[in-house]
Design brief:
CATH architecture of the largest domain: Beta Barrel
Largest sheet: 12 strands, mixed
Distance between the termini: 67 Å
Structural class: alpha+beta
Number of strands: 15
Number of domains: 2
Order of helices and strands: HEHEEEEHEEEEEEEEHEE
Number of helices: 4
CATH topology of the largest domain: Acetoacetate decarboxylase-like
Helix content: 10-25%
Length: 301
């Protein structure tokens, strides 16, 4: 009798499973399936697999900056035709190494550090649009895929690279201290080709970590149409900036910077180094909570 009861229960469970499967199939075919979740693909019913979680995104890290001047025509050549040169010091450039720890609301990524820690090296110029001066990132390399996804969403031209920068600690002999005479280095490579290297020697505290990267960002968000010859399905000019800024003491000093090219990157020839203006180091915290759409020329084809 016990065996018979077990058999009946097993049959009932299997029947229930088949009924659930059939109902699931009906829900799928009838278009009533639960919507897919996630901020950037891949999207799933739970949203766990999304490359990037929903904003806001929180950042804590350090910036090692080298500012220099290049020929003004080099900056003009990297700007779209409808974006103008900055009215003051238009040939100024900032090359920045950033060592970031980031997370979304709740901070779950901080307990799985590979999802929160990454480095990037990027190039910033200044520009003018509709009478206002902006900072603009014109080249950037990062070490994690989620950082690329966030960047493309924001209009940063992010690529994968190998980035390293000296870290400061408060203990031991394997670190500089945040003091006069401290030397910090940064390197960048992509596809096994060295593209940039820098050494900054700190001299004194300063009020800022430079002037080139000191404005709201102005970026182009674009995506070519899937139909050949139809232009850009996504063609927007956007602006954004950090909120909840939490800034440490900035230091300035002397700097050396060497840029190079490779078969796949034209960094050295794109914005060659002329006059070095100085180097900076700062610990920073900021939040990205969104931006503003200034111009939209998208053609949804």
């Amino acid at each position: 009798m016990a065996h018979l009861e077990s058999h009946v229960k097993s049959f009932a469970c299997k029947s229930s499973d088949r009924l659930h499967a059939n109902n699931m199939g009906n829900r799928i075919h009838s278009g009533r399936m639960t919507s897919l979740q996630g901020f950037l693909p891949p999207l799933t019913p739970r949203g766990t697999s999304a490359l990037v979680p929903n904003p806001p995104w929180f950042y804590s890290g350090t910036l090692l900056t080298v500012e220099y001047r290049t020929a003004v025509e080099n900056v003009r050549a990297i700007l779209p035709p409808d974006i103008d040169l900055a009215p003051e010091d238009p040939g100024a450039v900032a090359f920045i190494w950033a060592d970031w720890q980031s997370c979304s609301t709740g901070g779950l990524e901080l307990l799985d550090p590979i999802r929160s820690q990454y480095l990037e090296a990027f190039v910033v110029v200044r520009c003018s649009y509709q009478g206002q001066t902006y900072s603009r990132c014109v080249a950037i390399w990062v070490t994690k895929d989620f950082a690329i996804g966030r960047g493309w969403f924001q209009g940063y031209p992010k690529k994968l690279g190998s980035v390293h920068v000296t870290r400061l600690f408060n203990r031991g002999k394997a670190t500089p201290r945040l003091e006069a005479g401290a030397q910090l280095g940064g390197t960048l490579a992509a596809y096994d080709h060295r593209l940039a290297s820098a050494v900054v020697t700190l001299r004194e505290p300063s009020e800022s970590n430079g002037f080139v990267n000191g404005h709201k960002m102005l970026h182009n968000r674009s995506m070519p149409s899937i139909s050949a010859g139809q232009g850009l399905s996504l063609d927007q000019i956007v602006t954004m900036g950090g909120t909840d800024l939490d800034l440490g003491q900035s230091w300035r000093g002397d700097a050396e910077l060497v840029l190079g090219d490779s078969p796949w990157d034209e960094l050295g020839s794109l914005l060659p180094v002329g006059e070095i203006l100085g180097g900076y180091y700062r610990e920073v915290g900021t939040t990205f909570a969104g931006g503003d759409l200034l111009t939209d020329r998208s053609r949804p084809i």
